[in-house]
Amino acid sequence: MRALPLGARVYVLCAVLAAALCAAPLLRCQAAVPWATVVLLSAVYAAGARGTRAPWPEWYSPVLLAGAFLLPPAAASLVAVPGALLAPVERRPAGVRRIWHAGQLAVAVWAAGQTFAALGGRAALDSVRAPGAPGFPSALAAATATALVLCLAVIALECGVLVTAERHSPRAAWHGRVLGSLAPHLVHGPAGLAMAVLWHSPYGPAAALLVLLPIYVSACVFALYHRERTAHQATIRALVQAVDIKDRYTRGHSERVGRASAMIARELGVSGDRLEALRIAGILHDVGKLGVPTRILRKNGPLTPDERRIIELHPEYGHEMVRGIGFLGEARAAILHHHERLDGTGYPYGLAGTQIPEFARVVAVADAFDAMTSTRTYRRARPVPTAVEELKRCAGSHFDPRMVRALARALDRHGWHAAVTSDAAGEERGNAPADAPRALPEPVAATAPGPSAPAARPDTADGAP
């Protein structure tokens, strides 16, 4: 407890005291409390909280809501306490976190119970149990409002901890939490109502608990999905870190290309899983550098033709490395073809136009943009407007004009903040590495005499024109 900031300690103590005040009326009306229902619901909630890694409020809220529907608010506030005190906690201090969650949920369930009573939910619930169920619409409306209050109370109390303990701003603590939690709570409102109706039916609590079966299956599926997603992210992070260690001149480049690729994709209307796949494609586009000898990547001075041919194999190396990673999907094609050019002069296969996969055309623009706007040991970053103009100049020959326009719109809308990726060791040497990007020659004016200058070859590492 002493490790927490003073404001957080005070906040946690206030939450615990508030929970105690919520349960205080039980001291005056012990005989009227259905303790058997309290104990059974508490045991069910504790078993669920103890047996799954899924977040307690979201996935076991039907039990809490059933308590709010069946019990007086003071008694309902106790339902979550044993489960919160017994549930596994991954972060320290574990004891303080358990006490905090017990107080948080007790206050939230008490508020939900008060809402259900104020909306006439108990009378409507009694009428639902009667033949013909004339009060079902009223009970359902009250149950939905109760679930909403439970959701908002849990989130509001959680935001207070983030503000006092982790120094988040109130806006940052609140942002994005409601939408992520609202849908499960609103779905579980009717589930909690079904539990309450069945609880006092001829079939009894055993039938009511069957309502939890699909909720438990959903929790298991969600937990499995969460573990797989975590494993995917760890795989991607390990690959990117390996590339950054091997090619220190472009450290941070992969993450920024992923960000720029996602910006382009949003402008093109890509969303959902395809947007995430495209972001990952940008992050992993240079993973094939792991197959290129380090002495070539870090070579000072110009490359020999053989060395350049080896570096130009990195898209194929990358594709082979990720071939067996099923969740990458379309990202694999972007890794293989992000150095292809629209006019067919790129590599590794010299594809042209729409032969180049869409993801690869997006990543090519993002790759070149970040290469031009990042400061390296061997040159200063170009301003964003200059880089965009260079991309527009090369649109139609190097890059897909639609992707270039999408990036320009996204930059106008959101701006760009590129991190410095210079390396101190390289600065001491004072020489550009072998894969340093080179600008294309400026276009020859129409009145200039003599033949047009030939286009320079693309940079082999980061796609800068």
Indicate the proportion of strand residues: under 5%
Number of helices, counting only DSSP H or I runs of 4 residues or more: 23
H/E order of the elements? Answer: HHHHHHHHHHHHHHHHHHHHHHH
Number of strands: 0
The helix/strand class is mainly alpha
Number of domains: 2
For the biggest sheet, the summary is:
none
Keywords: Membrane, Transmembrane, Transmembrane helix
Region (Disordered): 421-465
InterPro entries: Cyclic_di-GMP/3'3'-cGAMP_PDE, HD/PDEase_dom, HD_domain, HD_GYP_dom, HDIG_dom
Biased composition (Low complexity): 443-458
Structural commentary:
The chain has 23 helices and no strands. It folds into 2 domains: 205 residues, no CATH class; 183 residues, Hypothetical protein af1432, CATH 1.10.3210.10. The longest helix has 35 residues. It is mainly alpha-helical and 465 residues long.
Topology:
Elements: H1 6-23, H2 35-51, H3 56-59, H4 61-70, H5 73-76, H6 81-86, H7 94-118, H8 121-129, H9 136-165, H10 170-174, H11 177-199, H12 204-209, H13 212-246, H14 253-267, H15 272-283, H16 294-297, H17 305-311, H18 314-322, H19 331-337, H20 358-373, H21 384-394, H22 401-414, H23 424-429
Region (Disordered): 421-465
Keywords: Membrane, Transmembrane, Transmembrane helix
Domain HD: 250-372
Quick take:
This protein is an all-alpha fold and 465 residues long. The protein contains 23 helices and no strands. The chain has helices at residues 6-23, 35-51, 56-59, 61-70, 73-76, 81-86, 94-118, 121-129, 136-165, 170-174, 177-199, 204-209, 212-246, 253-267, 272-283, 294-297, 305-311, 314-322, 331-337, 358-373, 384-394, 401-414, 424-429.
